[in-house]
Protein 1
Amino acid sequence: MPEIQNPNQQSGGPDSRTLLIYAVIFLAIFLGLQYFRSKNAPPAPPNGKHTPAAQKNSPAPSAAPASAPGQTASGNAPAAATTPAVLAAAETTTTVESPLYRVTFTNRGGVAKSWILKKYTNDAQNRPLDMVNDKAAQQFGYPLSLYTYDAALTQQLNQAMYVPSATGTIQAPATLTFRYSANGLTVEKTFRFEKSYVLETDVKVTRNGAPVTALLAWPSGFGDQETLPQYQNAQIDQETGAKTGFHLAGGPNVKQIEPKKVSGGDTVQGPLDYAGVSDLYFASIFLPPNPDNALMVTLHHALELPRDPAHPKTSKMDQVPVLGAAVGSTTGEVHDRLFVGPKALDVLKSIHTAYHFNLEGIVHYGFWGWIAKPMFLVLQFFHNHGIPNWGWAILLLTLILNAAMMPTRVTMMKKSLAMMRIQPQMDAIKAKYAKYKATDPRKQEMNKEMMDLQKREGINMFAGCLPMLLQYPLLIGFYRMLEVTIALRHAHWMWLPDLSAPDPYYILPIFVVVSMFLVQFFTPSPGVDPAQQRMMAFMMPAFFGFMMLHIGSGVALYWAGGNILGVGQQWVMNSTGMGREMKELAAKRAARKRAQGGKVINARR
């Protein structure tokens, strides 16, 4: 029998040969890799120096821009190596100042960290308003930062240490330039300030000599938005018109986009005569020199704010939209003018686009603009010609409007007297059909007889509503005017610190209730159902008083002033022969009602 042997004990057996083969293959691979590395290694720099750090940190080929026609990607590499580095060693600030503003820049990103408007104060503190919303800007970017379609590049551009052309404080008119260059990336941002609210901007970004599309941004709302109510009060109201949002203008027409319809990162192509973002009273609007080539990227972020600012740590949090805009051109460079300032009509009228349109359209009065804007222009005329206080100007306008409506009050009183004269006949017709139910067809005959009687006497029962119908559009128009007019922001009168805010002491709302009750008491209402009389005498004043608790005190001042004038006018008219006759007829009707057991609301009528 052949001898049986253990293969594992055989010297030079199959396992030993296998291990030897693996070792040879591994050695061959290792030597091959070393040879390949030596063949493809870059040549050593002269003088035996190592490659600079700038080359080690150069962008990966995938991040490089497409090569220019006739030039390979490798042909751009020497540009990155030879571009001299321009970057600051430490953070510094530069302040540009004029009688209207004080703008403080930091060279970290070449952005504005503060933008003070000297003629306007903050809502919460009586100090100059800072247009920079610092809380939002810390998260979403500061004004005059750059936006690109590459998030990593955007962050690099806005965190780079630029070299400013000046530090400290400089007076407008002035030019301030920020430069940065490293790793083939070159940036130059130039801002030319005049003494107005408009500055000129120039931005150029290149990478390895090729242009990069970079847009100049105002990304984080405005500094007068600090609390939840300030954000909520400045949101879009579809019925009365846009108060805040994006403003896009192609020619004289302005398109406004409300926050909920804005998607962050969307690109809006030209033509754009101007484009930007605003809140209730302030705006940042870019004015491209070539509207056809302009483009804008909409920026929409969300910021959490406490419902109770006094107790932010324990209060529930709500999210509010923070809007911004980045504007540039299809050429990749930015050469725009930028308006940063108040939405004051006289200021906006003086600013013109490349096609000579002004910025007046960003003040949006809504549907009632045909009333609201003329009312403001009249108020402004009063204020600029002898009445320096807006509250007194409002009262003067109230006096003029009520004087203009005086003929309608006289007409109303004549119609009321005519109605009172035929009231016995009307009562007789009602008594004739009193036995029939309301669903009985014969009730229609009663209505026809009453209408025929009024027609024969030349009476229109709705004519008495004319003064009230005229007052309501004026009230709504005044409310819209007061709501969007920055001239009335923080304007004081007597005990009122701000005519655009509710009365903090509730004096005017109470005055509105009392004065409106007196108007209802003294105004004749012949033929009105007692239930309707009670509503008019009590419910309407209570409703308007409640409404005045929550709207600007300037509106309450206008309404209360009109009520007092109305009481005076009605008292005078009640003292005339026509008024005395109405009083006698009302007394006779009241006596009949009492004899029949009915209720009387106002025996003087």
Protein 2
Amino acid sequence: MDNGLCDHRSGWRRSGPGDRDSGSAGKTCGNRETGAFTPLLESQRRRGLAACPDRGGGIAMYLEINGSIYRLLIEQEQGGWLIPYETPGAPVFLTRAGWGKRVAVPAEPDGPRTKAEQKRLDMIRPLTEERACITDKILRRRMAVRIAQEHHTTSRRVLRLYYIFLAHGTIQLKRKALKPKREEQKKIFAAAIERYYLSAKRPSLRDAYDCLLLEQYTDEEGKLLPEYPSWHSFRQYYYRSGMHKKSHKIIAREGLSDYQRNHRLLGGSAPLWKDHLGSYQMDATQADIYLVSSFDRSLVIGRPNIYLAVDTVSELIAGIYVGLEAGENAVMACLANAAADKVEICSKYGIHMTQEQWPSSGLPAEIITDKGREFESARVGELCVRYGMERESLPPFRPDRKSLVEKTFDLLQSRYKSLLRGKGVIEPDAQERWSTDYRSQAVLTLEEYTELLLRIILYLNNRPLKNYPASTEMLQQQVPMTPAGIWRWMQENGRSDLLEVEKEEIYCLALPRKEARVTRRGVEWDGFVYINPELRNLLEQLRGQKVTVAFDAQNTAKAYLLYECGYLPLALAQSCSCYTGMAASEAQLYRKHAQETIHMLDKQDVQARIELLRSTKELIRQAENGGMKRRQSGSEISANRETERRKRT
């Protein structure tokens, strides 16, 4: 490279433009430029030192100024252009008065140039060939910008490499072999991260570093040893080794269940899991809304429970239960709703629809649930045995395994939350301090909320499924890609495993059971009394005994007596007729409210009785002090009576 500067790789100074004798190596230029090695100094170069004799000797000159080392690039009469050696930067001009003493510095290492080094040298060649760039800042920057554009880099990087070359005479990369100590340290870091950081206790990375220091780099008194790894090196090893991206970290800190739910790779499609109608995914949740009593809107009855049954193949919402009950009774009610005629159910809430809008009916051939207690109950097992239903229990804490029903809960509630905000809907800040009491905002009754959900279900069952994995046959027949449309198509093509059952039988089978006692008044439990004149003889025989009854928790008007595997109807007695049409929970709330009223009236009655007793005693005391008592005959009493009568008339 013809640059007029020292070339530490060859040990020779190459002549450049402006030299007085371009044919003799080792001679200086007219302005006495320094920085050349001669063959006579080869021994010194091999020892790793660049000698610094008097100027003009053709050897690189280094000066120590205020504790820093500078290389003299161009020497002039008044001073010279210097560049920092340890932290190369832009060359500066310094007069001779500011020069310090001359020093020797280690020579740059010899060795073959790598491709990267040669590429950098070729890139800055125009700058090194133009010696005016040392003194002309504007020219230097203009050429750096042009080079950066040609090589698709930045001018800052070009200048940095140029300054390094001026200061060192090379830009050879420093390749340092990893010390055995460094390798041992990496093993210690890996073991510490595995032991302390990848833990279910989920400590921070800094806590793991502190534990490492305490375990490996402290003496017996707990004082830190002089040589200990820095926090920066520990953190750098963690990220450079890619340990923050490995699945092992998530599994160790968050658990396998969290990794499988939220981080594992996804493949396949939920509707392709099954190929026939009748595989229902079931789950339950508590609605994010508070409701009021339908008989007294000033009474808040809490948050209702929602149970859903969603068909796997068509994504159709086949059954729903909305109420205050939970457990196996709610599961049975949801299955009964799935098996019933939806036109009749919706008509009870004033919703007019057709069978095509909600075509599902009949019991499913299979229910897919988690290991919830209500889905593993004896009554659900009895139902499965009686009708030949299958029950598939998925692992707990894995909502992603039954994603359709889980997502349906979000779709249901997201449809009304914005409209009912401020009307009992629970916001995310419900658990924060000074948050709103959403119970005081409740306005909807259970019936109104159920009607709202039914209308939303009708919409969801007829919405377009944009990402549904339709088969070629479905595309050829132009099947409407809606849950209801897919259901109808599969049912017409015989791809249905639904079980047909009698309406009354499935209704009675789904009713909750309760233990009651037969008394003179009838069949009693929880303050309700039921009778049936046609069963008078049977009830007379069962008087004093405990029996099992099935009742509708949403309507206390009627119940059924379970006797010899049959369901005998019962009706509310006249003494309890005020509860007709109420849900059992609402009736209990109404009764509690009535009892509180009676208790308050009873307290007032006690106060009135005390007041009456006090006033009576006072009246008697005044009467006794009004006159003297003496014995009188009957004639005197008659005369006194006549006198009193005259005075009152």
Protein 3
Amino acid sequence: MKKILIFFLVFSTSIFAQKKVEVDLSNPNSTIYTHLYFLQSNSYEPAKAATTIYGFEGEEAENIAIKLKQILDGKGLKVDFSKVPSDAMFSDTTGYVIGNRYVLFPYQMPDIYVERIGGKWYYSPETTQNVNEIYNSVFPWYTEKLHQIIPEIGHKKFLNIELWQYLGLIILLIVCFILFYFLHKIMFFLLQKIQFWIIHTSSDQIKLALKKLSRPLVLLVLMWFVQLVLPSLFLDLNVNTYLFLGLNIMTAVFWIYVFLKLVQVVMSVYSDYAQGTHNKLDDQLVPILNNFLTGIVVFIGLLKLLTLFGIEPGAVIAGASIGGLAVALASQDTVKNLIGTVMIFLDKPFHIGDWIEAGTVVGTVEAVGFRSTRVRAADTSIYQIPNSSLSEMVVNNKGLRAYRRYSTNLGIRYDTPPELIEAFVNGVRKIIELHPDTRDESYNVEFTGFGDSALLILLNVYFKALDWGAEQSSKHSLHLAILKLAANLGVEFAFPSTTLMIEQFPEKKVSNTAYNVEENRIQQIINEISNK
């Protein structure tokens, strides 16, 4: 029995000896593990940790190794050894460094890295030479003096945090509350000054947006202040890791909030500008731009949040690109409509309120949306035209006409004497010249041809009013004036008809219309038009 116990004791001892950690500088993983393992409280051997420092020996190398660990702990940077390469010939291809090097935290602390020197891996000479500079950038100037004045009782721990550290966190929280009260007013004042300097105008909506914007900006300043002071408390690595992760998440969220509020401020200014212009298409651009910019801010903010949880930015961007390509392929019509929307706002083929003809659609443009344009027809029905289709159509914009053209033919009886035809044409010309709604320098009134049942007189005029209702009112007054002229002259308008002329019929005479072609009478009627 004793032999069996001795056997198990020797066997377990041999297993424990096999698992004993020794100095290993053969690859990046082993070197970093050697450095951090021998500086833990339960395996504290700074001399062995100092073997990872190249170019220094003894106490100086130990101090450098200790400072490197304090820097990582102070920033809450915890090494995930499952991601550290174990390849002795590892070559960094991330673009941060070139050659057989490995950067522990390329985004948070790019100056600390290991490299292969003489077949072994050490902390680089650049890292060890700059360790004091890095240390001073992480820890405030008062850190060492603060630790010197802490009494022994302050080092007692509760939940892995020393009492003086609890006191430091409470004091830091109180200072942040006091700073927030004063900085909020200062920030709002500065934002107002910047706003007046940029646009020279203000409104209640802009002031409200600036007031909301000042709060997260102050909180961002306080987050930076906390991150600057926090390392001086020398909290445990695990505590610092969670604190800095929380601070970074809050910072990212606040930045998202700031940019969203900034979008609101910009859109408020642009909305005021758009309302002051005659072009109503600018008003339609406000909600589209607002949604677009909001989407960009949220998208970039989410990417940033994902990187905080250890996801590589390159992988996030690549995944977003692949996902975006898949979505684009699955929704080609939506992408085409989006491009069509951009082209409409760039080319501006019409404005809100314009009367357009686009294919078979005729009506007034009411709204230009992110995907489609709404057109109201004359019967008040609504057409929703996809912007991709509308951007490729031939659009006849009646709303951009300088004048409204009106052209028609006046048909008078075939038996009208030439004298009355000439008098009627001159009278219509006089009416157009004196009409308040027509262009007197551009019109046509001519005897142009012989129709099936009437002599055709071309009437071509241009109305000054662009509104459809005003055009109809102008036509009304013009038509009445022509009818009165015809009645006074005795000119009759022809009906679509066929006249059968019979030269000889018992007891019947040929029907002839009696026209009064007295020259003085005709001249008097023409003169009366000018006197009205």
Protein 4
Amino acid sequence: MSTDYSKFASLSPFELKDELIRLASSKADRAMLNAGRGNPNFLATLPRAVFFLFGQFALAESRLSMSYLSPALGGMVRVEGIEGRFDRFVEARQGQEDADALAVAVSYVRDQMGLSASEFLQEMVEGILGCYYPTPPRMLPLSEKIVGQYVLREMVGGDIALDTTEFFATEGGTAAMAYVFNTMKQNGLINKGDKVAIGMPVFSPYIEIPQLEEYGLEVVSVQADPALNWQYPEHELEKLRDPGVKIFFCVNPSNPPSVKMDDASLAKIASIVKERPDLMILTDDVYGTFADNFRSLYAVCPRNTILVYSFSKYFGATGWRLGVIGMHKDNAIDVHLANLPAEEKSRLAKRYSSLTLDPSALKFIDRLVADSRAVALNHTAGLSTPQQVQMVLFSLFVLTDHEERYKKVLKNLIRRREAVMYRELGVSRSEDANAVDYYTLIDLEDTCRALYGEDFAKWMLERASTGEILFRIADETGIVLLPGGGFGTVRAAARASLANLNEFQYAAIGSALRKMVDEYYQEFKQKKS
């Protein structure tokens, strides 16, 4: 009896993945190739080595106090002379890659950024030891400056001064998104029935969150066009002029098309914002560091944009849970708060009255921090300090990599994987300067047309509507791909991550998919004869 695959249609792609994995791994004599996962199989080792080495220095600093009581007991950091002790620590290890990188990092903080080396070392030692609550809860002071320097350089190219932007360290980009939506709801910036415009296709949870009962938002799809290399057509961006659209949010570069917004789209959105200064924008730029000459919406609409960045993909650090929310100090969201009705302001004053004598002056970014801990626990809010230290060391690793060696290696790695997969599939890929290639969408219609013509492509589209193809691929080849429809695509497509398998495995995926298409083509010819 044939399986009714339509029953899986309501599942999120990430829940559907479990069913596909079950099928793909059902044969003992076959290796499963899971190209549905976004978790990379590469990671940045040097900043981790620096983290562990610095931990040794921090322990030595702690043992300068109170160890007379017990060899297992240490005390708090003695700031006096800490820079000299650090210099001796790295000099004794000169020539070790991690020690040299650590020395370069501190030199950059002191000599390039003009920050106090002693204060930086104190913050990092206390941070890596985890001996204090995060203070201030939003982000450690020097950590915020260093991470901010990295994020602004990578996301906006240095066009925005560091002292214009504030950052909130979060447990990854997904926590950042959850915090933003919650605080917007708590503060009456979005209400049930409001419209939220979403750049499609997009990471599927971002489609699902606004539709949850507690938000009840109306989703307005702003569809990227595959015929335009996954850029947003002007008529789609025109939807942002609707005054009923409270917020536009997108992933840039996109997930799953993996294409950065081009300059024309950025300029178009900036022009709409000039006419609609009330429009709020939320951009998730996690893949921006994989792109050439990337510019975030924050670069062109800083007052209206909430910038979310995660360290998870670029550094292979999904388990670390490291992300930041960035907001301009002079921003439209705070203007929204100031213009709320008096009754709403009174309600919010009561909500935040335990934090400040003037709750109405509390900025949105500080409300994010408070709401992340149900307000009452604001004093113990904040990302753990060891996590913040690793975030700083990741940032300094890139800031001191003047030849961008790490970036070049990663970009070449994922692009080679893409090239070999499509080569084995037998389909050529067009060059696109805006492509990032962390993921790829394998378009069913285009692929089948390129291989066997228009009639076969139409026949395959009819088969795609049954939900059969991805399950058959998983069952017969052991390959897991995710359905593009779950990410908001309007064409039948499958998402493959180019980050989590090795090159020979992507060749095997391409070959297996070609074999599957050939089998379908033979079935097509028989039915047409």
